[in-house]
Design goal:
Strand content: 5-15%
Structural class: alpha/beta
CATH architecture of the largest domain: Up-down Bundle
CATH superfamily of the largest domain: ABC transporter type 1, transmembrane domain
Radius of gyration: 33 Å
CATH topology of the largest domain: ABC transporter transmembrane region fold
Strand order of the largest sheet: 6-9-10-3-11-12
Shape: elongated
Number of domains: 2
Number of helices: 14
Length: 496
Amino acid sequence: MQIYVLFSVISMILIIIPFVTIIIFSIRASHNIHEKMINNLLQAPLYPFHDQNPTGRIINRISRDLYSLDLDLPFNALQLLISSSNYVINFFTCIIFDFWSLIVLPFAILIFRYYYNYYIQISSQLTRLQAKSKSPILQKMQESLYGRTTISLFGNDIPFIDKFNEIVNTYSKISIHKFGSLGFFGLRISLFSLLIYIAIIMIVLFQINYLSTSTLVSISIIYAYSLASYVSGFYTDFSTLELNLVSLERCLAYSNLPKESVDKLKEDERNSSIQGKIEFQNYSTKYRPEWPLVLRDFSLEINEKEKIRIIGRTGSGKSTIFLTLLGMLKPTSGSLLIGGIDISSINGDQLRRSISIIPQEPSIFMGNLKENLDPKNLYSDEEINNVLKITRLNKLIEGDVMKFQIEEQGRNLSLGQKQLISFGRAILKKSKIILMDEVTSAMDLDTELVITSIMSSIFKETTIITISHKMNILSNYHKIVILDNGKVSKIVYPSS
């Protein structure tokens, strides 16, 4: 009795130790890969990476593929460990009790190996296609949810549903083929496992007169049956593990992305700020190497504390100027100087800390108003309250303004209120250079007057560059720069 208890305890220990070991190491590996993926995604250059990879593809990598790393791979590894150990034990047991089984087993292994190679080549590619075809589903769903109000307003839901169904059908077709290939492999593995079992039984029956006892015959048949099933299980688990390694491969691809050269500043350097004078000297740039130039020999001088407005048609290069100032696009020729220093030699972190941007569509986060104005909690309540008074947000929002809860994407705020939050951030930051992108294009007159007042008083000592498609409210600007085809077409001085 004691010997059976001892064997039971040893068996439990041998099962628990590999199980716990695999779980611990898989959690550590998944955590490290997730951390590297997020860091690399946040530090990847806008061009070309984020320009070429839609949001749905990125979400697919950090959701579906990471899920496979967290749950599927550890389970598959454990299953493979169990099936391989059972396979090896039964293999040698079968040989010990019936040496003539060696006639059948090598042929069986070769046949299994042939079908395994045939299956894995097809199925691995189908797994990649399946993962890739899921990204458009997430992308289309995100686009539809974001624009659901406009879609419903124009009654244009049928084309979106048809397109979504088309994308889902593509994903389903690939999934059906993938599961079909699995069925193909499973059916043949089971069939040949049965043939192995029959062959070993035939060998045992042919030499039944030479076996000493009926017990030996029974053991040989039982282990022959077990061996056939464990061979099938081993190759099935091995193929499943290899297919799930596709998710690991996709995650590792995002863990080794090229990073933007942005060096973090030391604490005592973060207060240093570059000056507001900007000089474009025969500057040319493009979004991708194979694309045409967006800015062509662009030359412009903007003095410190100067306010300029850049006007031009769509595609004239207005937004490209902002991207170059933020160091997101590199020059093909020429140079860009800020404060007399070429931006290619300026610390990337310092460059972006010295520039504030107020986009046409403000970025609003779910949380209270204070968190939206000061996400890093760098400023005092007194400074934030002062900004609320300047932007008049304390009058536009009722109750305790700083604790006012903002819903997802700022649904409970008007566009004007969102834009004033962006201005509040710029006021707190005290940047030497502020970039504005069509900030008053969809505002009412009162909000536009508040912004005009901020520009003429609070931003009096700041260099401001505004881009727009039209000429309105020109009195606050020193220059009006008209762009055409990536070049300065004309410069107008409102004062004259």
